[in-house]
Amino acid sequence: MGSNYPPSSGRERTALQVKRLRPQVTTGSTFEIKTGCGSIFVTINEDDKGPCEVFVRGGKHAGCISCQMEGFGRLLSLAMRLGGSLDDCIKQVSGLQCSTPTWYDGQQILSCADAVSLALKRYLQEKNDGQS
User: Fold this and answer.
1) Is residue 92 packed enough to be buried (19+ CB in 10 Å), middle (13-18) or exposed (0-12)?
2) Is the pLDDT assigned to residue 15 strictly greater than 60?
3) How many angstroms separate the CA atoms of 13 and 83, rounded?
4) What is the full DSSP assignment across 33-99?
């Protein structure tokens, strides 16, 4: 049987990507962002190598939305532990739009994913301001 995958693009990794293990203790920041669905809380934790995990929780969300936000945070965490940068994560989720955009702190928030990208941007800004 033939493969359902497209031919190689020539962009394969040349070395096995090793997943960064989570330490027992991390430190981080939590951001509350208002969305069209209500407030969400985004926690970005880091270890001695930098950001390593993201937790996304909704204030009053339940059911599928809550599960989707948790899964979203897990995927962002995995991307970071596999060597992806926060800038890469921001580029992927910034600007995603749902049916209930809103305004928060002078910025339009297009979706919960867009709100997560705002929290990631603020985290990076705080880190950059602290290094000045």
Assistant:
1) middle
2) no
3) 12
4) EEETTEEEEEEEEEETTEEEEEEEEESS--HHHHHHHHHHHHHHHHHHHTT--HHHHHHHHTT---S
Residue linked to tokens 């359902």: 4
- Please say if the pLDDT value at position 127 is more than 70: yes
Report d(CA 64, CA 39) in Å as an integer: 16
Q: What phi and psi, each to the nearest 5 degrees, are found at residue 32?
A: -100, 125
Separation of alpha carbons 77 and 80, rounded Å: 5
**Measured distance CA(114)–CA(96) in Å, rounded:** 6
Provide the whole-model pTM: 0.81
| Six-digit token string for 12 | 């394969």
Q: What whole-number distance in Å separates Cα of residue 72 and Cα of residue 55?
A: 8
DSSP reduced 3-state for 124? helix
Length of the chain: 132
Read off the pLDDT of residues 17-72 as tens digits, 9 standing for 90 and up: 678 888 899 999 999 999 988 899 999 999 998 999 999 998 776 667 788 889 99
